[in-house]
Amino acid sequence: MSALTVATCKLPESVLVVIHTPAADVLLLERADHPGFWQSVTGSRDALDEPLAATCAREVAEETGLVRAPADFDDWALTHRYTIYPHWRHRYAPGVTHNVEHVFGLRVATRFDPVLAPREHLRAQWLPWRAAAEACFSWTNAQAIRRLAGRSAP
Question: Whole-model pTM?
Answer without folding.
Answer: 0.90
